[in-house]
Amino acid sequence: MREHFDEQLAQIKDDLVELCALTEVAIERATRALLDTDLTAADRAAEVCADIDTRGRELDHRALTLIARQQPVAQDLRALIGGMHNIADLRRMGSLAAHIAEVARLHHPEPVVPHELRAIISDMGAAATAQAAAAQEVLRTRDEAAALDLIWADERTDELLRKLFAATKSDDWLYGAASAVNITLLGRFYERFCDHTVEISRRVIFVITGELPLPDE
Predict the structure, then answer these.
(1) Which pLDDT belongs to residue 217?
(2) Which of 30, 156, 161, 179 sits CB 3.0–4.6 Å from 101 for a disulfide?
(3) For the chain, how long is the longest CA-to-CA vector?
């Protein structure tokens, strides 16, 4: 009985890592769609995001069923409950990537991002992709030091968001209110995507230590 439970728990952990890998693919494709006005990339990002949601729902059901049938305690229970919360974060990351791809699709073939802001958006996309990749490693290894590194790395995205907001509020802004709204939303989508990787890292630390680090730690 215990061996079977351990196998199921290990499979859920592996599937969480795979789900996180899909969010990396999704945000990379969404960013490419946005910066390159690439409709094919937007469509492929949407497909990956739909797959994330479907797999996430199934994985959540499996985790809940394992809790109900096996009544795990201590670290195993933390791993399952934390895993279910992480599934919700990963599904939300997929939704945010889908929102970015949809903005690109709706404006195609016109570019969404003004030339002056391409570098910032590109950096935000790179940061989001890197944090999704780092979250995979944190989920795979349950390395507390790596989880803390990912939490601290999120400051980079916050800095980029501040630069983006400053540009849209500047007296030199030449692209109108609609464009400013689009850029603001895109910045928020990237920021929230990265915030979810931080939440995943915090929960991994909880699984390891039994203590949940505060958001500002």
Answers:
(1) 45
(2) 30
(3) 67
Cα–Cα separations (whole angstroms), residue 212 to 42, 44, 134, 145, 147: 36, 36, 19, 14, 12
Closest C-alpha to 107, from 35, 174, 173, 167: 35
* Residue 160 confidence (pLDDT) above 60: yes
| Average pLDDT score, the chain | 95
- What's this model's pTM, rounded to 2 decimal places? 0.95
Retrieve residue 79's tokens: 């791993």
DSSP the chain: -HHHHHHHHHHHHHHHHHHHHHHHHHHHHHHHHHHHT-HHHHHHHHHHHHHHHHHHHHHHHHHHHHHHHH---HHHHHHHHHHHHHHHHHHHHHHHHHHHHHHHHHHTTS-SS-GGGHHHHHHHHHHHHHHHHHHHHHHHH--HHHHHHHHHHTHHHHHHHHHHHHHHHSTT--SHHHHHHHHHHHHHHHHHHHHHHHHHHHHHHHHHHS----TT-
